[in-house]
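Fig. S4 source data, part A: sequence.
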Amino acid sequence: MASARQHHARSGHLLARKDKVVEDLTKGVEFLFRKNKIDYIKGRGRIAGPGRVDVQLEGGGSQSLTAKNICIATGSEIVPAAERHGR
């Protein structure tokens, strides 16, 4: 049976691996967006209406966007339910 220390070490390795995979995939998507002249907005967004998105920008501030097509990438971080619902 594995000890708690061994389990913790494996968990840490898995999380580090996940973070590396997410980073590599994100960089690939960023490259494809630049190549295809697609705007990439980092922040927390919400659909404000048909063709409209309000974004709290990652670096501070906010931005309202309109577009024919909207793609929202939800990311890989766990967000507590209370935070998701604005509580």
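Fig. S4 source data, part B ends here. The longest helix spans residues 4-35.
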